[in-house]
Amino acid sequence: MPTIELVAVSNYICRGISLSVKDGQLMVLLGPNGAGKTTLLNIVAGLIEYEGSVLFDGSPVDDIPSHQRGVSYLFQDLALFPHLDVSANIAYGIKVQRQKKGMIEARVNELLNVMKIEHLAHRFPRDLSGGERQRVALARALAPSPHMLLLDEPFSNLDFRTAKLLRTELRHLQKKFGITMIYVTHNQREAEEISDSIAVIHEGSIEQVGTADEIFFDPHNKNVSEFIGSPNILYCASCRALGRGLMEIDTGSLTIVVPNDGQPIEKIAISPRDIYISTEKPPGPNLNRFKGRIIDITHASSLAWIKLQVGRHTLVSEQPAEIVQEMDLRTGDEIYLILKMRWIRTLSDPLV
Amino acid sequence: MANRFRSGWGILSIVIFLAFWEGMARLSIIPGQIFFPPFSVVIQEFYALIVNGVLIDNFFRSLVRIMIGFFFGSVAGLLVGILMGWKALIDRALGPLISIIYPIPALGWLPLLMLWIGINELLPIAIVFICSFFPICYNTATGVRGVDRNLIRVARTMGASDFTVLRTVVVPLALPNIFTGFRLEAGMAWRVIIAAEMVAIPTGIGALMMRAESLIRVDIIIVCLMVLSIMCFSFEKLFVFLEKRLTAKWR
User: Fold this and answer.
1) Backbone angle region of A320, left / alpha / beta, with phi > 0 → left and psi within -120 to 50 → alpha
2) pTM
3) I need a surface site. Which of A11, A80, A203, B144 has the fewest CB within 10 A?
4) Is residue B98 within a helix (H) or strand (E), and if so which, with residue range?
C-alpha cells in the first residue's frame, strides 16, 4: 500500500494530479519554477485548500488539519525560528506533542549527534552558516520521528559541495529510518542523484513518473523532453570496457568513450549544452571529437541550437546565440565537435 | 568605550547648563528674580516638598493612575492587536474603525469623558487607557501580521494548535513591534495625565503645577518638570531594557 497517495487533486495550480509514493521511497517532484511543485507539497501537508483526495497508508486525510497529519515539512527558506536557539528549534516539534522533558532532551541530543551539530546547540539561527542552518532544519524536521517528510528544494542555496554532502546524508538517513519522502527540485542532476523515482511536473500536471533512467532515456512527451534538455540519444551497437571506469561504445558510425562501471550499455544520452563546437580542429587526443556538417540553426532568445549531421546521426548542440554569431556559422559548414565525456549518460542494457 | 565617553560628555553638558543657570540667577542678570529662581533654590524646594509629603502624595496619585490605565490599555491593546493580526476577518472588521479613531489625540477625548464619566478618579485612568490602547493595538497587529507565514506553517505541520502557535511563535516574534508600541505609549501616558490633571483633576503632578502657577511658585513648577523629565526618561529606558532583555539574543 502506498504511503502517500494523491487522487485527482486539483486547485488553482494543480490539475487533476494522481500520484503514489511507496513506503520508504524517495520521490522527486521535478519541474520548472511555477510548475506547482511546492503547491503539491502544501496540499500533502494540508496547508492549502484542494479538491480531490489525499490518502496516507490508504486512508483519506482530507478532513484532517495540517497539525494532525503527522507530516514533517522542510521549507525552501528553512524557516528556522529566529527566537529559539538550535536545541530549542529541534525540540519544538517534540515539545508541542507534550513529551516528557527527559525524552525531549534525549531526542534533541541524538539529533545533534546524527547531524553532527553538537557544537551549535546554543547558537541562534542568525549566527549559523547556510550549511549549518540546513542541518538544523533537517534535524528539526526529523525530531518528531516522522513517517513522512516533505522537502522543498532544501539544498538549493548551498554551494555545490555542501549540497552534495547533505544530499548523501539525507539519503542515508532516509534509508536508515525508512522515511517516505517527497523531494522537490528543479535540478535534474540532483533529482537523478537522490531519487528512487521521479515525477516530472509541468504546469500543474504530472507528465511522467519513472526512474531517472526511464525519464531521461525515454521521455514520454515534448514537455518532459524539453525540460530535461532534449538530449541526443544514441543506441549502442557494441561496447568494450577500457578499464578505469571507462567504456568504448560503437553506435554503428561513431566510436564514443563514456564513463561506465562495466555494465553493457544499451543507449547513451548527451544534452545539447554538453556538446562543444569549434571551427578549428580541437587539440588533444582524438577521443569523442568528431567532424560534422551543419544542417540547421534555430534561435530562441539568447540561445541557438545547431543541428549537425555526424556520421549517420543527427546531433543537436546548444550554444549562446552570440557565440554562433561570432563564429559566423552557416548551414552546410563543416565543423568540429566534442562530446563532454563526464556528462554523457548511459543506460545499461536490461536484457543482459 | 565610545559609549562611556559619550555619556561622560552628556553629564558634563548638563553640569555646565546647571552652573550657567545658577550663575545667571544669582547674578540677577535677568530682571524679576522671582520668576527665575537659581538651581540651588529649586533643589531645596524639591527636598522640602518631599519632606512635607506634598510631592510624594501628588506623584503617587499620578503614578497609580498611569499604572492602572496603562495596564488595562496595554492588555486590551495586546489582545485586540493579536486578534487583528491573526484573523484577517477581525482585521477587516475592526481595522478601518481603529484607523479612524487612532489619529485623534488622546486629550481630545477629555471634554467628552468629563461629561460621560464625570470628574473622578476614573477620568485620568480612562484617558491613559485610550492613549495606551491604540499604539499597542496597532503595533501588535503590525507585528503579528509581519511574522513569516512559513514559520507558522512549520509550527503547524509539527502539530502545534492555534493557541500554541500564537504563544510560542507569533507573539515572541512580534515582540519588537509590541515594544515599539510600549515605548511610544510610555512617554505619551505622562504627557496625557499631566494635561488631564491641569484641566480637570484637583490632584496629581499636573494639578500641583497649576496650583504653583496660581501662587507664582516658579520653583515648584520647575521641581514638577524635573520629576516629569525623570519619569518619562526612566519609563522609556525601562521598556528599552525589557525589549533588549527579551529580544537581543536573537535579533
Assistant:
1) beta
2) 0.77
3) A203
4) helix B88-101
B180, B137 contact by CB (below 8 A): no
For the beta sheet containing A303-310, the strands, ordered from the edge strand earlier in sequence to the opposite edge, are: A275-278, A334-339, A289-300, A303-310, A313-320
Cβ–Cβ < 8 Å for A255, A298: no
Helix, strand, or coil here: A249?
A: strand
Q: What dihedral do alpha carbons A157, A161, A166, A172 form, nearest 10°?
A: 150
Q: pLDDT-based confidence at B207, cuts 50/70/90? A: very high
Q: Which residues pair with B120 in a beta bridge?
A: none
Interface of A with B in 280-309 (CB under 8 A): none
pLDDT 10s digits, B49-104: 999 988 999 999 999 999 999 999 999 999 999 999 998 899 999 989 998 998 89
What values do phi and psi take at A135, rounded to 5?
Answer: -65, -45
| CA closest to B172 among chain A residues | A83
Q: Say whether A81 and B151 touch across the interface (CB within 8 A).
A: yes
Residues forming beta bridges with residue A12, ordered by sequence position: none
In single-letter form, the type of residue at position A158 comes to: L
- Pairing outcome for strands A148-152 and A71-74: parallel
Instruction: Using the Cα atoms of residue B95, residue B96, residue B102 and residue B108 in order, give the sign of their dihedral.
Output: negative
Domains in chain B (CATH in brackets) are: 37-247 (1.10.3720.10)
Nearest chain B residue (CA) to A141: B158
Vertex A253 angle, CA A297 and A313, to 5°: 25
Q: Are A254 and A290 in contact (CB under 8 A)?
A: yes
Closest alpha carbon to A246 in A256, A228, A231, A258: A258
| Contact between A232 and A315 (Cβ < 8 Å) | yes
Minimum CA–CA partner of B171 in chain A: A83
Please tell me what DSSP assigns to residue B166. I
CB contact under 8 A, B154 and A97: no
| Cell 555494465 found at | A263
Question: Is B199 in contact with B208 (CB distance < 8 Å)?
Answer: no
Strands A197-202 and A180-185: unpaired
CB B84 within 8 A of CB B91: yes
pLDDT, tens only, A89-104: 999 999 988 888 889 9
| Exposed e or buried b per residue across A102-113, where buried means at least 16 C-beta atoms within 10 angstroms of its C-beta | eebeebbeebbe
**Burial track B167-190 (b if 16+ CB lie within 10 A, e otherwise):** ebbbbbbbbebbbbbbbbbbebbb
Interchain CB distance below 8 Å, B157 and A47: yes
